[in-house]
Amino acid sequence: MNSQSPQEAFYAILSKCLDKDNAVRKAAEEQITSISLTNYEDILINCSAFLMNDNFQNDIRQLCAVIIKNSVAGEDNIKRWLTIPDDKKNVIKSNVLACLGSEKKEIRRGAATAVAALAKIELQRGTWSTLIPTLYSASQHQNINYKLSSIITAGYICQEVERFSNEDREQVFKMIFTFLPYGTLSDNELIKQNLNALSKFLIFLEPNMKDKAFREELFKHLFNYIVHIQSEEIDIIALQCVNAVAKMYYDYIAEEMPLISQFISNIMRSPNEKIATQGYMFWISLSDEELNRVSSNKKIYSYCQQQFKMIWEDVKLNLEKRNPEFERNNEDNFTRYLATSYLLDNFSKLLDVSFINEIFNFITV
C-alpha cells in the first residue's frame, strides 16, 4: 500500500525531472504535463509551497519556479489561471512573493521570474494592487537581499507588462530613480541590477522625457556611472541605456545631442574593446533610426550629419589603428572594427554626397 501523500508523490516526480537518465527525466516531465491538465491549481499551489520551503533542495525549488512561470504563459494557460478561485490565487501569489526575501540568490531570482509572469496577468487586470507597493517597500529595506530582489523583480515585470496603472508606474519610477544618482548605492551588484531595471523601464518614461531638466539629470546619472565606476559590466549596461534612450526618444534629445556626442566620442576612443564598441553602437542605432524615418517619411533631425565631423575623426583614428591579427582572432565577435563597417554602410545611405566623398577619399588612399 502506498503511504505517500499527494505532496510527497509530487516531490518524487519533481526529483525525477532532475534525473541524469534522459528516459527517467522525460517520463517525469510527461507526468508533470499530465498532472497540470487535470490538477492545474493544485500543481501551482504545491509548486509555490515547495518554492517557499527552505528544507527542500535548491534545484527542486528552482524547478518549481520554472513550472509556475511556464504554467501561466500563453493564452490557454492565462485562461486556466483566471478560473482559479481568488483565495487560491492569493495563496500562490503570496507564497511566491515571500521567496523574494530568501537568503539564497538562485531562489530569489527564480521567484522574481515567477512573480513577473504572474504580474503580466494580474497587473493588466488590476487584480494585484499590493504587488508594486510591496516591492517598493522592500526596496527601502536595510537588508540588501530585499533591495536586490525588489529591483530585480521590478525589472522583470517591466519586461513582461505592456502597461502600468499611473500609481504603479510612479512607484516603479520612484523605486529605480531613488537609487539612480551616483553615490546613492555602494554595492556594485545593486548598481548593476538597478541599471538593468532602468533599461527595462525606459519604454515607460515618455511622460518624463518631455521634460528637459529630467533628460539632463538622466544622462548625467548614466555618464557618472560610466566615468566613476571601474566596472566594465556596469559601464556597458549604462551605455546600453544611453543608446536605448537616444533611439527610443529620438524626438526629444536635440538639445542634449552636442553633450551626448562629445561623451560618446570619448567612449569610441576607449582602449577597452567592449566599451568602445558601445560607442559605435550608439551611432549605428541612431543612424538606423534615421534611415527608418527617411523610409517612413517621419521627421528627421539629422543628428548623424550634424555630428559627422566628430564621428568621422573617431572612425578615422580607429581605421588608422586597425590590427589585422586582432580582427582574425576576434572574427566571431562584434568589435569596433566590425561596427565601423556597419556604421559606414549606414552613413553611405544617409549623408550628403560631400560627406560620402570624404569617407571614400580616405578609404581609397
SSE blueprint:
Blueprint: H1 6-17, H2 22-38, H3 40-52, H4 58-71, H5 75-83, H6 86-98, H7 105-122, H8 131-139, H9 144-160, H10 166-178, H11 188-201, H12 206-209, H13 212-228, H14 232-248, H15 257-268, H16 273-295, H17 303-306, H18 308-320, H19 324-329, H20 336-350, H21 353-363
Helix pairs in contact: 1-2, 2-3, 3-4, 3-6, 4-7, 7-9, 8-9, 8-10, 9-11, 10-11, 11-14, 13-14, 14-16, 15-16, 15-18, 16-20
Provide structural commentary.
The structure is a single chain. By secondary structure, the chain is an all-alpha fold. It has helices spanning 6-17, 22-38, 40-52, 58-71, 75-83, 86-98, 105-122, 131-139, 144-160, 166-178, 188-201, 206-209, 212-228, 232-248, 257-268, 273-295, 303-306, 308-320, 324-329, 336-350, 353-363.
What is the overall number of helices? Answer: 21
Mean pLDDT: 91
Per the principal axes of the C-alpha atoms, what is the gross shape? elongated
Q: Please report which band the strand proportion falls in: under 5%, 5-15%, 15-25%, 25-35%, 35-45% or over 45%.
A: under 5%
Instruction: Specify the structural class.
Output: mainly alpha
First-to-last CA distance: 88 Å
Could you tell me the radius of gyration in angstroms? 25 Å
Q: Roughly how much helix do the residues carry, as a percent range?
A: over 70%
Query: How many strands in all?
Result: 0
Order of helices and strands: HHHHHHHHHHHHHHHHHHHHH
Enumerate the spans where pLDDT stays under 50 for 5 or more consecutive residues.
Answer: none
Largest beta-sheet details: none
